[in-house]
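We both want to read discrete structure tokens more fluently, so let's practise on a single case. Would you write everything just below, so we can both look at the same thing?
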Amino acid sequence: MNILRLGSQVRASLFACVASLSTLLMVVAAAASHCADYARAKLVCVQHFFSIKDPTQPSDSSPFAKIEDYPRGYPRLSALQSSDGAFAIFRKFGTLHVRSLLLAQAELASLESQLNAVDTEERVQLYLSSYKHDNNQRRPFLLKTIKTKLEAYDAELFRFFQLSALDAPRARNIRSFRRWMDTFKPLIQEESVFLQLKADFVSPRRNDEVGFLEEGIERVVRKTGIGRKFLQTDLESQKTSDPDLHYFSSHRQAQLARVLHTVTASCLLVIPTLLLYVVESQKKKLAIIAIYTITFATTVAVFTRARRHEIFAATAAYSAVLVIFIGNVPSP
């Protein structure tokens, strides 16, 4: 009887577990269905949101799809200078910034002298030793004025240093900008004088990874047209209809330059290795090492933006590899 009672209790427990599990599964299924309905509703809302085009953005039906579609004047000039970082050329007004800083510096120096005079002429030691008990009304006024002018001076000085850290535009970018300005003449003569002050121009900071090779690729494509279809995507080709303006994808330029860098680095390592293996004369081997070490160092210095200590380290490692190869690999 005890065994039968125990078996019935086990069956009852199993039925209770199954019922609880079924209830839990039903709750989970209902929650999943609710979440799926909510996700579908959100997806419809998102699709509807993105299907609405922003009227301020240029589209196929926008009258300002290309640079030439903007009205001649400041609108078209703004479109050009915002189309690519190469045309983001502006004056920094270095002389005016320095003039303003010098004026602020002179004012602060005068206030400093006045404060020193007030402190020196003070006869009550308590006024100098306590802020709460300082009854000299001129000192708090000077300190408040100095604080206000110091904040303005520090902010202006910091902005000037940030401005001075910007790169000067490349000469060819300035020439292209001037050529475009001479062709379309968007501004009157009086307001185009800034083009003659190229020593005062600044541009955004260039990417440290972009070196002579990327610039050379762009120059070759501009002159010969070779590789234009690869470097110019639909986004770049739709910016302008002017045959003298060329826009190229910086991402694809970087990809092509990376491939050329890889091929060059491989050749500079494989070719001297093969020559050192074939040549038997020690003098010729030393000459090969010297020639390719100089070639490697020159390539790194010209085609990359490596720093001087990085050039020395890379050249030393390269020459060490060739020297070790001589010592460990026997001649045929």
User: Anything to note?
Assistant: Residues 83 and 239 are 7 Å apart (CA to CA).
